[in-house]
Amino acid sequence: xxxxxxxxxxxxxxxxxxxxxxxxxxxxxxxxxxxxxxxxxxxxxxxxxxxxxxxxxxxxxxxxxxxxxxxxxxxxxxxxxxxxxxxxxxxxxxxxxxxxxxxxxxxxxxxxxxxxxxxxxxxxxxxxxxxxxxxxxxxxxxxxxxxxxxxxxxxxxxxxxxxxxxxxxxxxxxxxxxxxxxxxxxxxxxxxxxxxxxxxxxxxxxxxxxxxxx
Length: 214
Known about the structure:
The protein is an alpha+beta fold. It has 2 helices and 8 strands. It has helices spanning 6-13, 17-68; strands at 71-78, 85-92, 127-129, 141-145, 151-154, 170-174, 187-191, 197-200. Strand 7 and strand 8 (197-200) form a beta hairpin. The longest helix is centred in the N-terminal third of the chain and has 52 residues, at 17-68. The termini are far apart. The relative contact order is 0.15. The mean pLDDT is 84.
């Protein structure tokens, strides 16, 4: 039997150099198409999860008020890394003579605990979460409101304290400009006067249960 040439041996063993180059070219094209779409998908997933980040803040603030029989508040502050908002939940134990106020210094901080006047035990510190991991403002616009309010206060019963001037009742998350094509649907986190937070979709159809209340 005649011996195979080197080219015949390579073909019998697998791909030729030309075939291997064609496969690599196809893979490069697929990666060029797929990587941006994967990046957009990951960004959209993070954007959708951002609503949960702020819903957690509302829920925790109410839970702290109920658990400690105290006043509590959720306060947003700008995050330098992502351009979004960090949040912090503070606790205060007011007395008839000393209502909660920053001037009185009776709100908790992340480093200084507060406790009720009659409590001999350990106090309660603030709980904070930063928005470093959230998508930047080029992907998601986070708008608290109404009227740009960035804080909401809760009574010991877990209801929104309507006596305070600042009353953040919703946070809207929208896709700016062309980012709207990245599978991110506008989302809102709304708060009822009873202190219950829920995620909803402001652009959902009128008969859709996911639509935000007017």
